[in-house]
Amino acid sequence: MKAIIVCASSSHGNTRKVADAIGSVLGAGVVEPGEISPVEIAEYDLVGFGSGVYYLAMDKRLRAFVDAVPAGQGRAAFVFATSGIKEPGLRPYLRHLADQLTGNGYEVVGGFACRGLDTMGPLALIGGLNKGRPSAADLDSARGFAEQLRVGFD
After folding, report:
1. Which of 33, 54, 99, 129 is the right S-S partner for 65, CB 3.0 to 4.6 Å?
2. How far apart are CA 140 and CA 65, in angstroms?
3. Cis omega (within 30 of 0) for bond into 70
4. What angle do CA 36, 41, 45 make, to 5 degrees?
5. Residue spans of beta strands (DSSP E) within the chain
6. Which domain covers residue 53, as residue numbers?
7. Residue 85 and residue 40: Cα distance in Å, rounded?
8. Report field, pTM of the whole predicted structure over 0.70
């Protein structure tokens, strides 16, 4: 299996930590959206797409990258995110990204989310939410998620 992870991680590097944990299990490199062209994604059997969540939306760089990705023709993908709060039912950012990929011909085989340090806006005044996150336990969960993905390809 040839895998790659496209990760837009800003602020504190929360999402990059999760991407690196998943990538270590899958043997996948981790790249920022600007480090690979959307066309190159077709070379991979499994592609991960993830970012932090900012004001209830995935990173705009990742959204633009996914918009430019050619049809997946049944290739497998997974989505992941870190956020300061639980994904709200009225604005499901992971499901929206998964639906976008499915509509573009990808088979979305899983999703992962965990908390991350959030210092956006007024939260910076109090030192943020979720200090110490993603934690070692969160990263173990991310590796467990990746193990499940890998089993699907063995």
Report:
1. 33
2. 28
3. no
4. 140
5. 3-8, 29-31, 46-54, 57-58, 76-83, 107-115
6. 3-151
7. 33
8. yes
Count of beta carbons in the 10 Å neighbourhood of residue 84: 19
- Residue 91 to residues 36, 40, 57, 86, Cα–Cα distance (Å): 29, 30, 8, 11
- Strands 57-58 and 46-54 come out as antiparallel
**In CATH, what number is assigned to the domain containing residue 115?**
3.40.50.360
Using one digit for the tens of pLDDT, what is the confidence trace for 108-150? 999 999 877 565 665 554 555 566 668 899 999 999 999 999 9
> What domain count does the chain have?
1
What residues contact residue 124 under an 8 Å CB cut-off, 6+ apart?
none
C-alpha to C-alpha distance for 6 and 28, rounded to whole angstroms: 10
